[in-house]
Design goal:
- The chain has a domain of 183 residues: 3-Layer(aba) Sandwich (Rossmann fold).
- The strands form three sheets. The protein has an eight-stranded parallel sheet with strand order 3-2-1-4-5-6-10-12, with helices on both faces. Strands 7-9 form a two-stranded parallel sheet. The chain has a two-stranded parallel ribbon with strand order 8-11.
- With 298 residues, the protein is an alpha/beta fold.
- The mean pLDDT is 97.
- The longest helix has 21 residues.
- It starts with a strand and ends with a helix.
- Helix 1 packs across helix 7, helix 4 runs parallel beside helix 5 and helix 8 packs across helix 12.
- The structure holds NADP nicotinamide-adenine-dinucleotide phosphate.
- The site of NADP nicotinamide-adenine-dinucleotide phosphate has 24 residues, from helix 1 and strand 7.
Length: 298
Amino acid sequence: MGMFAITGITGQVGGEVARNLLAAHRTVRGVVRDVSKCKAWAERGCQLVSADINDAAALTDAFKDVDGAFILVPPNFDPSPDFSEARTLAAKLSSVLVAARPRKVVYLSTIGAQATRSNLLAQHTIIEQALRKLPVAITFLRPAWFMENFAWDVAPAKNGAIQSFLQPLDKPKPMVATSDIGRLAAELLQETWNGHRVIELEGPHRVTPTEVATTFANLLGRPVRVEAVPRETWEALFKSQGMKNPEPRIQMLDGFNEGWIEFEGKEVGSRKGKVGLETVLRTLIERDSAMKAVSSAN
Ligand SMILES: NC(=O)c1ccc[n+]([C@@H]2O[C@H](COP(=O)([O-])OP(=O)(O)OC[C@H]3O[C@@H](n4cnc5c(N)ncnc54)[C@H](OP(=O)(O)O)[C@@H]3O)[C@@H](O)[C@H]2O)c1
């Protein structure tokens, strides 16, 4: 039975991909930056190899002799205005795949990778366009907004109010749980296909910021309001938080709010996951409480 090389295994989606493959009794090679931090994965039976995503030679070795490779590029919320980091990575990943020739690849892209207007997600557009030139079987998996992004809102929700850049507050947005992404990516890796395909994924139903606040309120047993962060304050706010180039992030938020960041096949064409908002928020609240308990014990 073949081997599957998984990048980002210490993160949200890559970890889920590996868990699902191991559960299906597949052999997993975790491609990590620091093998010493991955003891738990070794104990689960993963082979571990060291490769930074920017190290083409190490990545080529990691992707050799595998049935499938799962490629996750680390998030970059503050890219250079010309997206030079993504362009460099696109060229490196192309040379890696040509040299290593994994039998198939699942590339974790994003909703809106087909958008023609510039925004933060253009980083995935650039990489998709480069990989499309390769004679390798590639699935571009385009998930919606991760529900786990609400991890940042757990503490504010406990204080009674969350802030939203997604607006208007009653407009449903495509969102998905990372467990659904990992499950689907593992399934796709075990399929056989030719050439390139795009698969778009969102959760069971679209979610409004108001629903996020109500769900937090129900789970926490206290009122939680949601406030829209005024659009004209975003640039100064993001700069005050240390961002050098907030424009792509603002353009991405505009894209979601104005609706031009959407699936290529719209809502009707996307696959639907099983995991709903309540399940994800419950887990995030439990994780936050567990971390607070550990830090107060220390
Ligand atoms: N958040 C969203 O709403 C959303 C929506 C659509 C698509 N996406 C895409 O999903 C991806 C993020 O997925 P995620 O949330 O699962 O990521 P994550 O939890 O932030 O994990 C990032 C992973 O990348 C690894 N990593 C970081 N820098 C690396 C490097 N230089 N070389 C090799 N590995 C490196 C990290 O490993 P270490 O342990 O070594 O740090 C970690 O395993 C991004 O490509 C993002 O654009 C996100």
